[in-house]
Amino acid sequence: MKENFLWGVAMSASQAEGGALLDGKGLVMDDVVSTVHNERFQATANLEIALNKTYDYYPSHQAIDFYHRYPEDIKRFAELGIKVLRTSINWARIYPKGIEEEPNEAGLTFYDKVFDECLKYGIEPVVTLNHFNTPLEFYYSGGWKNRELIHHFVKYAKTVFTRYKDKVKYWMTINEINMILSLPLVGGLINPTLEENVDFAKYQGAHYQLVASALAVKVGKEINPNFQIGCMMGAGVTYPYSCRPEDVWEAFQANEEEYALIDVQVKGQYPHLFLSKLKHKGLELDMTADDLAILEENTVDFVGLSYYNTRLTAADKSSLQTSGANLMGTLKNPYLKSNDFGWQSDPLGFRITLNELYSRYHLPLFIVENGYSAIETCDGDPIQDDYRIDYIRDHLKQLKAAMEDGVDIIGYTPWAGIDIISASTGVIEKRYGLIYVDLDDEGNGSLERTPKKSYYWYQNVVKTNGEEL
To answer: What string of H, E and C letters represents the secondary structure of the chain?
Structure first.
Protein backbone atom coordinates (compact mmCIF):
# COMPACT_ATOMS: atom_id res chain seq x y z
CA MET A 1 0.00 0.00 0.00
CA LYS A 2 1.05 3.59 -0.50
CA GLU A 3 2.46 5.24 2.64
CA ASN A 4 -0.44 7.67 3.07
CA PHE A 5 -3.14 5.00 2.72
CA LEU A 6 -5.90 5.72 5.23
CA TRP A 7 -6.69 2.65 7.29
CA GLY A 8 -9.70 3.04 9.52
CA VAL A 9 -13.00 1.64 10.77
CA ALA A 10 -16.59 2.69 10.13
CA MET A 11 -19.89 3.21 11.93
CA SER A 12 -22.88 5.58 11.75
CA ALA A 13 -24.69 7.84 14.19
CA SER A 14 -28.14 6.23 14.32
CA GLN A 15 -26.75 2.71 14.56
CA ALA A 16 -24.22 3.41 17.32
CA GLU A 17 -24.94 6.52 19.36
CA GLY A 18 -28.17 5.96 21.26
CA GLY A 19 -29.13 9.01 23.29
CA ALA A 20 -31.92 9.42 20.75
CA LEU A 21 -34.12 11.50 23.05
CA LEU A 22 -31.40 13.35 24.96
CA ASP A 23 -30.07 16.91 24.90
CA GLY A 24 -32.65 18.34 22.52
CA LYS A 25 -32.19 15.84 19.70
CA GLY A 26 -35.14 15.49 17.33
CA LEU A 27 -36.53 12.31 15.82
CA VAL A 28 -35.41 10.53 12.65
CA MET A 29 -37.09 7.51 11.05
CA ASP A 30 -34.88 5.07 12.97
CA ASP A 31 -36.26 6.46 16.22
CA VAL A 32 -39.87 5.41 15.50
CA VAL A 33 -39.35 1.95 13.98
CA SER A 34 -38.55 -1.22 15.92
CA THR A 35 -36.87 -4.44 14.82
CA VAL A 36 -37.45 -7.07 12.15
CA HIS A 37 -39.40 -8.95 14.85
CA ASN A 38 -41.75 -5.96 15.20
CA GLU A 39 -42.68 -4.94 11.64
CA ARG A 40 -39.48 -3.10 10.75
CA PHE A 41 -39.54 -4.31 7.14
CA GLN A 42 -43.18 -3.31 6.78
CA ALA A 43 -42.63 0.06 8.48
CA THR A 44 -39.64 0.97 6.32
CA ALA A 45 -41.95 0.52 3.32
CA ASN A 46 -44.91 2.31 4.94
CA LEU A 47 -43.98 4.44 7.95
CA GLU A 48 -47.62 4.91 8.92
CA ILE A 49 -47.50 1.40 10.39
CA ALA A 50 -44.95 2.49 12.99
CA LEU A 51 -46.29 5.99 13.58
CA ASN A 52 -49.62 4.57 14.73
CA LYS A 53 -48.08 2.16 17.25
CA THR A 54 -45.91 2.12 20.35
CA TYR A 55 -43.31 -0.62 20.54
CA ASP A 56 -41.63 -1.99 23.66
CA TYR A 57 -38.19 -1.55 22.14
CA TYR A 58 -36.71 1.03 19.79
CA PRO A 59 -33.14 -0.05 18.96
CA SER A 60 -31.87 3.44 18.08
CA HIS A 61 -32.86 4.90 21.46
CA GLN A 62 -29.96 3.17 23.21
CA ALA A 63 -28.11 1.53 20.30
CA ILE A 64 -24.68 0.62 21.75
CA ASP A 65 -24.59 3.87 23.77
CA PHE A 66 -21.68 5.40 21.89
CA TYR A 67 -23.23 8.69 23.04
CA HIS A 68 -21.84 8.07 26.53
CA ARG A 69 -19.10 5.53 25.79
CA TYR A 70 -17.31 7.28 22.91
CA PRO A 71 -14.05 7.83 24.87
CA GLU A 72 -13.76 4.09 25.55
CA ASP A 73 -14.65 3.14 21.98
CA ILE A 74 -12.36 5.66 20.33
CA LYS A 75 -9.52 4.51 22.60
CA ARG A 76 -10.15 0.94 21.37
CA PHE A 77 -10.11 2.19 17.78
CA ALA A 78 -6.89 4.08 18.42
CA GLU A 79 -5.24 0.91 19.70
CA LEU A 80 -5.79 -0.55 16.23
CA GLY A 81 -3.38 2.08 14.92
CA ILE A 82 -5.94 3.47 12.46
CA LYS A 83 -5.71 6.88 10.80
CA VAL A 84 -9.43 7.58 10.21
CA LEU A 85 -12.86 6.94 11.75
CA ARG A 86 -15.71 7.00 9.25
CA THR A 87 -18.88 8.13 11.05
CA SER A 88 -21.79 10.52 10.60
CA ILE A 89 -23.49 13.47 12.22
CA ASN A 90 -27.13 13.00 13.12
CA TRP A 91 -28.83 15.95 11.42
CA ALA A 92 -31.59 15.94 14.07
CA ARG A 93 -29.04 16.52 16.83
CA ILE A 94 -28.07 19.78 15.17
CA TYR A 95 -31.51 20.87 13.94
CA PRO A 96 -34.08 18.76 15.84
CA LYS A 97 -36.91 19.34 13.37
CA GLY A 98 -34.70 20.55 10.54
CA ILE A 99 -36.61 23.80 10.21
CA GLU A 100 -35.08 25.79 13.10
CA GLU A 101 -33.07 28.88 12.32
CA GLU A 102 -30.60 28.31 15.17
CA PRO A 103 -28.78 25.01 15.78
CA ASN A 104 -28.93 22.93 18.95
CA GLU A 105 -25.74 23.77 20.82
CA ALA A 106 -25.81 20.53 22.80
CA GLY A 107 -25.65 18.54 19.57
CA LEU A 108 -22.78 20.60 18.21
CA THR A 109 -20.91 20.20 21.49
CA PHE A 110 -21.31 16.42 21.41
CA TYR A 111 -19.60 16.15 18.03
CA ASP A 112 -16.91 18.59 19.16
CA LYS A 113 -16.11 16.12 21.93
CA VAL A 114 -16.16 13.11 19.60
CA PHE A 115 -13.91 14.74 17.02
CA ASP A 116 -11.55 16.09 19.69
CA GLU A 117 -11.27 12.60 21.16
CA CYS A 118 -10.38 11.25 17.72
CA LEU A 119 -7.81 13.95 17.08
CA LYS A 120 -6.23 13.31 20.48
CA TYR A 121 -5.16 9.93 19.10
CA GLY A 122 -4.24 11.20 15.64
CA ILE A 123 -7.45 9.81 14.09
CA GLU A 124 -9.08 11.94 11.39
CA PRO A 125 -12.88 11.87 11.29
CA VAL A 126 -14.43 11.05 7.90
CA VAL A 127 -17.93 12.45 8.25
CA THR A 128 -21.17 11.77 6.38
CA LEU A 129 -23.70 14.61 6.60
CA ASN A 130 -26.81 12.50 6.05
CA HIS A 131 -26.63 8.77 6.80
CA PHE A 132 -30.34 7.89 6.56
CA ASN A 133 -31.21 10.46 9.25
CA THR A 134 -33.22 13.25 7.69
CA PRO A 135 -35.28 14.83 10.52
CA LEU A 136 -38.65 13.10 10.79
CA GLU A 137 -40.53 16.41 10.65
CA PHE A 138 -39.88 16.53 6.91
CA TYR A 139 -41.80 13.27 6.43
CA TYR A 140 -45.03 15.15 6.97
CA SER A 141 -44.28 17.54 4.10
CA GLY A 142 -43.41 14.80 1.61
CA GLY A 143 -39.79 14.06 2.47
CA TRP A 144 -37.13 14.83 -0.10
CA LYS A 145 -39.63 15.41 -2.90
CA ASN A 146 -40.19 18.80 -1.23
CA ARG A 147 -37.79 21.42 -2.65
CA GLU A 148 -37.64 23.19 0.73
CA LEU A 149 -35.34 20.46 2.02
CA ILE A 150 -32.54 21.82 -0.17
CA HIS A 151 -32.45 25.03 1.86
CA HIS A 152 -32.57 23.23 5.19
CA PHE A 153 -29.87 20.71 4.24
CA VAL A 154 -27.52 23.46 3.06
CA LYS A 155 -28.16 25.41 6.27
CA TYR A 156 -27.25 22.31 8.27
CA ALA A 157 -24.16 21.65 6.13
CA LYS A 158 -22.99 25.24 6.50
CA THR A 159 -23.39 25.02 10.27
CA VAL A 160 -21.31 21.87 10.73
CA PHE A 161 -18.75 22.83 8.06
CA THR A 162 -18.18 26.08 9.93
CA ARG A 163 -18.09 24.50 13.37
CA TYR A 164 -15.69 21.69 12.46
CA LYS A 165 -13.68 23.36 9.69
CA ASP A 166 -10.44 22.77 11.58
CA LYS A 167 -11.31 19.28 12.82
CA VAL A 168 -12.67 17.44 9.78
CA LYS A 169 -11.09 17.30 6.33
CA TYR A 170 -12.98 14.44 4.64
CA TRP A 171 -16.75 14.77 4.19
CA MET A 172 -19.43 12.86 2.29
CA THR A 173 -22.77 14.47 1.62
CA ILE A 174 -25.43 11.74 1.43
CA ASN A 175 -24.91 8.08 2.30
CA GLU A 176 -25.69 5.59 -0.47
CA ILE A 177 -27.56 8.25 -2.43
CA ASN A 178 -28.72 5.64 -4.95
CA MET A 179 -30.84 4.07 -2.17
CA ILE A 180 -33.59 6.65 -2.71
CA LEU A 181 -34.43 4.97 -6.03
CA SER A 182 -34.84 1.48 -4.56
CA LEU A 183 -36.05 2.32 -1.02
CA PRO A 184 -37.46 5.85 -1.15
CA LEU A 185 -38.55 5.87 2.49
CA VAL A 186 -35.14 4.85 3.83
CA GLY A 187 -33.25 7.04 1.38
CA GLY A 188 -35.56 10.01 1.16
CA LEU A 189 -38.41 9.90 3.72
CA ILE A 190 -40.80 9.39 0.80
CA ASN A 191 -43.61 6.96 1.65
CA PRO A 192 -44.38 5.04 -1.56
CA THR A 193 -47.77 3.89 -0.27
CA LEU A 194 -48.94 7.53 -0.07
CA GLU A 195 -47.75 8.62 -3.51
CA GLU A 196 -49.97 8.80 -6.57
CA ASN A 197 -46.88 8.35 -8.73
CA VAL A 198 -44.02 6.67 -6.87
CA ASP A 199 -41.60 7.07 -9.77
CA PHE A 200 -42.20 10.81 -9.90
CA ALA A 201 -41.74 11.16 -6.13
CA LYS A 202 -38.48 9.23 -5.92
CA TYR A 203 -36.86 10.78 -9.01
CA GLN A 204 -37.90 14.26 -7.91
CA GLY A 205 -36.49 13.54 -4.46
CA ALA A 206 -33.26 12.28 -5.98
CA HIS A 207 -32.91 15.48 -8.01
CA TYR A 208 -33.39 17.66 -4.95
CA GLN A 209 -30.83 15.59 -3.04
CA LEU A 210 -28.35 16.11 -5.86
CA VAL A 211 -28.90 19.87 -5.85
CA ALA A 212 -28.57 19.95 -2.06
CA SER A 213 -25.37 17.91 -2.25
CA ALA A 214 -23.88 20.21 -4.90
CA LEU A 215 -24.73 23.32 -2.90
CA ALA A 216 -23.15 21.71 0.16
CA VAL A 217 -19.96 21.22 -1.87
CA LYS A 218 -20.10 24.89 -2.86
CA VAL A 219 -20.61 26.10 0.71
CA GLY A 220 -17.98 23.74 2.08
CA LYS A 221 -15.32 24.91 -0.34
CA GLU A 222 -16.09 28.51 0.57
CA ILE A 223 -15.64 27.75 4.26
CA ASN A 224 -12.47 25.69 3.85
CA PRO A 225 -10.97 25.24 0.37
CA ASN A 226 -8.95 22.31 1.72
CA PHE A 227 -12.03 20.24 2.47
CA GLN A 228 -12.25 17.00 0.51
CA ILE A 229 -15.96 16.48 -0.14
CA GLY A 230 -17.18 13.28 -1.72
CA CYS A 231 -20.34 11.50 -2.72
CA MET A 232 -21.21 8.01 -1.48
CA MET A 233 -22.88 5.09 -3.22
CA GLY A 234 -23.93 1.56 -2.43
CA ALA A 235 -21.67 -0.16 -4.96
CA GLY A 236 -21.49 -3.61 -6.46
CA VAL A 237 -21.56 -4.31 -10.17
CA THR A 238 -24.62 -6.15 -11.53
CA TYR A 239 -23.87 -9.24 -13.60
CA PRO A 240 -26.15 -10.69 -16.29
CA TYR A 241 -27.48 -14.14 -15.38
CA SER A 242 -26.35 -15.43 -18.77
CA CYS A 243 -24.81 -14.22 -22.00
CA ARG A 244 -28.31 -14.07 -23.48
CA PRO A 245 -28.52 -10.53 -24.91
CA GLU A 246 -31.74 -9.81 -23.02
CA ASP A 247 -29.98 -10.62 -19.73
CA VAL A 248 -26.97 -8.50 -20.69
CA TRP A 249 -29.26 -5.56 -21.49
CA GLU A 250 -31.08 -5.99 -18.17
CA ALA A 251 -27.76 -5.90 -16.30
CA PHE A 252 -26.55 -2.90 -18.30
CA GLN A 253 -29.68 -0.94 -17.41
CA ALA A 254 -29.39 -1.91 -13.73
CA ASN A 255 -25.81 -0.65 -13.60
CA GLU A 256 -26.69 2.58 -15.36
CA GLU A 257 -29.47 3.20 -12.84
CA GLU A 258 -27.08 2.68 -9.92
CA TYR A 259 -24.44 4.97 -11.44
CA ALA A 260 -26.82 7.71 -12.61
CA LEU A 261 -26.84 9.85 -9.47
CA ILE A 262 -23.09 9.46 -8.96
CA ASP A 263 -22.61 10.49 -12.60
CA VAL A 264 -24.28 13.78 -11.74
CA GLN A 265 -22.19 14.32 -8.61
CA VAL A 266 -18.94 13.58 -10.43
CA LYS A 267 -19.57 14.81 -13.98
CA GLY A 268 -22.12 17.53 -13.25
CA GLN A 269 -24.63 16.25 -15.78
CA TYR A 270 -27.37 13.65 -16.02
CA PRO A 271 -26.54 10.67 -18.25
CA HIS A 272 -28.57 10.32 -21.42
CA LEU A 273 -30.18 6.99 -20.44
CA PHE A 274 -31.45 8.49 -17.19
CA LEU A 275 -33.07 11.41 -19.01
CA SER A 276 -34.46 9.00 -21.60
CA LYS A 277 -36.01 6.90 -18.84
CA LEU A 278 -37.72 9.96 -17.35
CA LYS A 279 -39.09 10.85 -20.76
CA HIS A 280 -40.39 7.35 -21.45
CA LYS A 281 -42.07 7.29 -18.05
CA GLY A 282 -43.70 10.65 -18.81
CA LEU A 283 -42.04 12.28 -15.81
CA GLU A 284 -41.53 16.04 -15.99
CA LEU A 285 -39.47 16.92 -12.94
CA ASP A 286 -39.01 20.29 -11.35
CA MET A 287 -35.48 20.67 -12.72
CA THR A 288 -34.60 24.30 -13.36
CA ALA A 289 -31.78 25.83 -15.38
CA ASP A 290 -30.33 27.14 -12.11
CA ASP A 291 -30.39 23.60 -10.71
CA LEU A 292 -28.47 22.26 -13.70
CA ALA A 293 -25.88 25.02 -13.42
CA ILE A 294 -25.40 24.26 -9.71
CA LEU A 295 -24.87 20.58 -10.50
CA GLU A 296 -22.36 21.33 -13.23
CA GLU A 297 -20.33 23.82 -11.19
CA ASN A 298 -20.05 21.94 -7.88
CA THR A 299 -18.79 18.41 -8.42
CA VAL A 300 -17.18 16.18 -5.79
CA ASP A 301 -13.54 15.44 -5.00
CA PHE A 302 -13.79 11.68 -4.51
CA VAL A 303 -16.22 8.77 -4.67
CA GLY A 304 -17.02 7.06 -1.38
CA LEU A 305 -18.60 3.63 -1.56
CA SER A 306 -19.89 0.67 0.34
CA TYR A 307 -19.24 -2.80 -1.06
CA TYR A 308 -20.61 -6.04 0.32
CA ASN A 309 -21.32 -8.08 -2.79
CA THR A 310 -22.18 -8.00 -6.46
CA ARG A 311 -25.68 -8.36 -7.86
CA LEU A 312 -27.22 -10.57 -10.49
CA THR A 313 -30.19 -9.98 -12.77
CA ALA A 314 -32.02 -11.49 -15.73
CA ALA A 315 -34.72 -10.47 -18.16
CA ASP A 316 -36.95 -13.24 -16.76
CA LYS A 317 -36.48 -13.63 -13.00
CA SER A 318 -39.62 -15.64 -12.31
CA SER A 319 -38.00 -19.07 -11.90
CA LEU A 320 -34.71 -17.94 -10.30
CA GLN A 321 -33.68 -17.88 -6.62
CA THR A 322 -33.05 -14.58 -4.84
CA SER A 323 -30.48 -13.49 -2.27
CA GLY A 324 -30.08 -10.53 0.10
CA ALA A 325 -27.76 -7.66 -0.83
CA ASN A 326 -27.40 -4.53 1.32
CA LEU A 327 -31.12 -3.66 1.66
CA MET A 328 -31.70 -4.60 -1.97
CA GLY A 329 -32.62 -8.00 -3.38
CA THR A 330 -30.69 -9.76 -6.12
CA LEU A 331 -30.73 -13.09 -7.85
CA LYS A 332 -28.68 -15.84 -6.22
CA ASN A 333 -25.34 -16.39 -7.96
CA PRO A 334 -24.63 -20.15 -8.06
CA TYR A 335 -20.86 -19.51 -8.06
CA LEU A 336 -20.72 -17.59 -4.77
CA LYS A 337 -20.82 -18.53 -1.05
CA SER A 338 -23.35 -17.03 1.40
CA ASN A 339 -23.15 -15.92 5.03
CA ASP A 340 -25.68 -16.50 7.85
CA PHE A 341 -28.03 -13.93 6.33
CA GLY A 342 -27.89 -15.04 2.70
CA TRP A 343 -25.46 -12.34 1.58
CA GLN A 344 -23.09 -13.69 -1.04
CA SER A 345 -19.36 -12.95 -0.97
CA ASP A 346 -17.60 -11.93 -4.19
CA PRO A 347 -14.05 -10.62 -3.63
CA LEU A 348 -13.18 -10.59 -7.34
CA GLY A 349 -16.35 -8.61 -7.91
CA PHE A 350 -14.81 -5.99 -5.60
CA ARG A 351 -11.86 -5.61 -7.97
CA ILE A 352 -14.22 -5.46 -10.94
CA THR A 353 -16.37 -2.81 -9.22
CA LEU A 354 -13.37 -0.67 -8.24
CA ASN A 355 -11.99 -0.74 -11.77
CA GLU A 356 -15.39 0.04 -13.23
CA LEU A 357 -15.86 3.05 -10.96
CA TYR A 358 -12.37 4.41 -11.53
CA SER A 359 -12.62 3.98 -15.31
CA ARG A 360 -15.94 5.78 -15.26
CA TYR A 361 -15.05 8.66 -12.94
CA HIS A 362 -11.25 9.11 -12.83
CA LEU A 363 -11.53 10.26 -9.22
CA PRO A 364 -9.98 8.73 -6.10
CA LEU A 365 -12.16 6.07 -4.44
CA PHE A 366 -12.68 5.72 -0.70
CA ILE A 367 -14.01 2.36 0.52
CA VAL A 368 -15.97 3.38 3.62
CA GLU A 369 -17.98 0.17 4.14
CA ASN A 370 -17.05 -3.46 3.57
CA GLY A 371 -17.66 -6.23 6.05
CA TYR A 372 -19.10 -9.55 7.10
CA SER A 373 -22.10 -10.18 9.33
CA ALA A 374 -22.60 -13.29 11.46
CA ILE A 375 -24.53 -14.51 14.48
CA GLU A 376 -22.09 -14.52 17.40
CA THR A 377 -22.09 -14.99 21.17
CA CYS A 378 -19.28 -14.19 23.58
CA ASP A 379 -18.44 -16.18 26.72
CA GLY A 380 -15.68 -13.84 27.84
CA ASP A 381 -12.96 -15.06 25.50
CA PRO A 382 -12.33 -13.36 22.15
CA ILE A 383 -14.70 -14.63 19.46
CA GLN A 384 -12.79 -16.70 16.92
CA ASP A 385 -14.28 -14.99 13.88
CA ASP A 386 -12.00 -16.46 11.24
CA TYR A 387 -14.84 -16.14 8.71
CA ARG A 388 -14.69 -12.33 9.07
CA ILE A 389 -10.92 -12.36 8.79
CA ASP A 390 -11.18 -14.48 5.64
CA TYR A 391 -13.77 -12.12 4.14
CA ILE A 392 -11.79 -8.94 4.81
CA ARG A 393 -8.50 -10.57 3.80
CA ASP A 394 -9.95 -11.78 0.49
CA HIS A 395 -11.33 -8.31 -0.23
CA LEU A 396 -8.11 -6.55 0.74
CA LYS A 397 -6.20 -8.81 -1.67
CA GLN A 398 -8.53 -7.66 -4.45
CA LEU A 399 -8.24 -4.03 -3.30
CA LYS A 400 -4.45 -4.32 -3.59
CA ALA A 401 -4.87 -5.90 -7.02
CA ALA A 402 -7.09 -3.01 -8.09
CA MET A 403 -4.46 -0.53 -6.94
CA GLU A 404 -1.88 -2.46 -8.98
CA ASP A 405 -4.32 -2.09 -11.89
CA GLY A 406 -3.91 1.66 -11.42
CA VAL A 407 -7.02 2.47 -9.35
CA ASP A 408 -6.44 5.41 -6.99
CA ILE A 409 -7.81 4.45 -3.55
CA ILE A 410 -7.68 6.83 -0.58
CA GLY A 411 -8.42 4.39 2.20
CA TYR A 412 -10.39 1.50 3.62
CA THR A 413 -12.73 1.43 6.63
CA PRO A 414 -14.34 -1.95 7.28
CA TRP A 415 -17.93 -2.09 8.47
CA ALA A 416 -17.82 -1.98 11.37
CA GLY A 417 -15.28 -1.11 14.01
CA ILE A 418 -17.68 -2.35 16.68
CA ASP A 419 -20.99 -4.23 16.74
CA ILE A 420 -23.82 -1.81 15.99
CA ILE A 421 -27.55 -1.99 15.26
CA SER A 422 -28.27 -3.33 11.77
CA ALA A 423 -29.81 -0.71 9.49
CA SER A 424 -31.94 -3.28 7.69
CA THR A 425 -33.17 -5.43 10.59
CA GLY A 426 -32.78 -3.21 13.65
CA VAL A 427 -31.22 -6.07 15.62
CA ILE A 428 -27.67 -6.58 16.79
CA GLU A 429 -27.53 -10.33 16.17
CA LYS A 430 -26.45 -9.37 12.66
CA ARG A 431 -22.96 -8.54 13.94
CA TYR A 432 -20.34 -6.82 11.77
CA GLY A 433 -17.93 -5.49 14.36
CA LEU A 434 -14.31 -6.13 15.17
CA ILE A 435 -15.39 -5.56 18.79
CA TYR A 436 -18.23 -7.50 20.43
CA VAL A 437 -20.90 -5.60 22.39
CA ASP A 438 -22.86 -7.44 25.09
CA LEU A 439 -26.36 -6.60 23.89
CA ASP A 440 -29.29 -8.68 22.70
CA ASP A 441 -32.12 -8.02 20.25
CA GLU A 442 -34.40 -6.65 22.99
CA GLY A 443 -31.82 -4.14 24.22
CA ASN A 444 -30.67 -6.17 27.23
CA GLY A 445 -27.03 -6.61 28.20
CA SER A 446 -24.11 -5.01 29.99
CA LEU A 447 -22.87 -3.22 26.84
CA GLU A 448 -19.39 -4.45 27.76
CA ARG A 449 -16.96 -4.37 24.85
CA THR A 450 -14.75 -7.37 23.97
CA PRO A 451 -12.37 -7.35 20.98
CA LYS A 452 -12.74 -10.31 18.62
CA LYS A 453 -9.93 -12.25 16.94
CA SER A 454 -10.49 -10.07 13.85
CA TYR A 455 -9.64 -6.98 15.92
CA TYR A 456 -6.10 -8.24 16.61
CA TRP A 457 -5.70 -9.48 13.05
CA TYR A 458 -6.73 -6.09 11.61
CA GLN A 459 -4.43 -4.36 14.10
CA ASN A 460 -1.51 -6.17 12.47
CA VAL A 461 -2.80 -5.40 8.96
CA VAL A 462 -2.76 -1.70 9.83
CA LYS A 463 0.64 -1.97 11.52
CA THR A 464 2.19 -3.57 8.42
CA ASN A 465 0.30 -1.24 6.03
CA GLY A 466 -1.41 -4.22 4.45
CA GLU A 467 1.77 -6.22 3.85
CA GLU A 468 0.71 -8.98 6.23
CA LEU A 469 -2.78 -10.22 5.48
So the answer is: CCCCCEEEEECCHHHHCCCCCCCCCCCEHHHCCCCHHHCHHHHCCCCHHHHCCCCCCCHHHHCCCHHHHHHHHHHHHHHCCCCEEEEECCHHHHCCCCCCCCCCHHHHHHHHHHHHHHHHCCCEEEEEEECCCCEHHHHHHCHHHCCHHHHHHHHHHHHHHHHCCCCCCEEEEECCCCHHHHCHHHHHCCCHHHCCCHHHHHHHHHHHHHHHHHHHHHHHHHHCCCCEEEEEEEECCEEECCCCHHHHHHHHHHHHHHHHHHHHHHHCCCCHHHHHHHHHCCCCCCCCHHHHHHHHHCCCCEEEEEECCCEEECCCCCCCCEECCCCCCEECCCCCEECCCCCEECHHHHHHHHHHHHHHHCCCEEEEECCCCECCCCCCCCCCCHHHHHHHHHHHHHHHHHHHHCCCEEEECCECCCCCCCCCCCCCCCECCCEEECCCCCCCCCCCEEECHHHHHHHHHHHCCCCCC
